[in-house]
Design brief:
The two termini are 23 Å apart. The chain has 2 domains: 149 residues, Roll (SH3 type barrels); 93 residues, Photosynthetic Reaction Center, Chain H, domain 2. The protein is built from 7 helices and 13 strands. It is an alpha+beta fold.
């Protein structure tokens, strides 16, 4: 099922023994276009502190409501490594976080979530096997300066450049709420085209992103984007809509 970051922003996060806080943004991996963490404002429970919640802990199905259940306790969350969300999150900090919860490293294994296509909760292992696996997992050095996460709050607003000029800006992110892979950027064209509309731009139609210049470069022309079917916020994105979208851009669904 496709969902949007904008929709889950503000959702209450509920642990097995009580509420944690509410979603304020998401961190996504800029290499694989997958949401790796929800950033949660803990409010008066842990004043002044944001915490990260991995999709590994999110109970499925996510649904369309404003409440997200997670398979964690409040104590686990309180004891998790402190994250300074105003600074880039390093790969070493991610490793510390994942180790705290016993989650696998998503960047090891060849699939979107390490050895799996979905962020599944790891099955408990016998103690001897767990010790061997843990030793193998953490022996590789990770450069502390490695940073691969981007903030949805920051990237929203980035300029979108077609092959022949600016077409608008990023407004939101559409993701598969089982795999947490970002499928589309929601683009608001109205600052380029008065009276325009919102359209979807698949992540595999992006050439590159200039993070310093806050610009996304697309492999589409302005005319292609103008002809795309309008995206209506809150409307379901079904197979028929996606087919019309790909046809209007003269693109297939396989990334070409």
């Amino acid at each position: 099922m496709l969902n949007t970051v904008g929709h889950i922003n503000g959702s209450r996060i509920v642990a097995t023994d009580g509420e944690i806080g509410h979603v304020k943004e998401a961190y996504f991996d800029d290499q694989d276009w997958a949401i790796r963490y929800l950033v949660v404002d803990t409010g008066t429970w842990l004043p002044g502190r944001d915490v990260l919640i991995s999709p590994h802990a999110v109970e499925q199905p996510l649904g369309r409501g404003k409440l997200i259940d997670v398979s964690l306790t409040r104590q686990q969350v309180q004891n998790s490594p402190v994250t300074e969300t105003h600074r880039p999150v390093s790969r070493q900090h991610e490793r510390d976080y994942l180790r705290h919860y016993g989650f696998p490293e998503y960047w090891v294994g060849g699939q979107l979530w390490g050895s799996n296509a979905l962020p599944l909760m790891p099955l408990p292992l016998p103690m001897a096997v767990e010790s061997e696996v843990e030793s193998a997992m953490w022996q590789e050095e990770v450069p502390p300066e490695d940073v691969n996460l981007r903030s949805s709050e920051v990237v929203a607003g980035y300029d979108i450049q077609a092959t022949d000029g600016s077409i608008g800006h990023v407004e939101d992110f559409v993701f598969d709420d089982e795999s947490w892979a970002i499928r589309y950027l929601v683009v608001d064209t109205r600052n380029w085209w008065p009276g325009g509309k919102k359209v979807l731009l698949a992540t595999h139609w992006i050439n590159r992103i200039d993070w310093a210049d806050k610009t996304v470069f697309a492999r589409l022309t302005r005319d292609q984007i103008r002809a795309a079917p309008a995206y209506e916020e809150g409307a379901p994105i079904d197979r028929d809509y996606e087919q019309r979208l790909h046809q209007s851009y003269d693109r297939r669904g396989d990334g070409s």
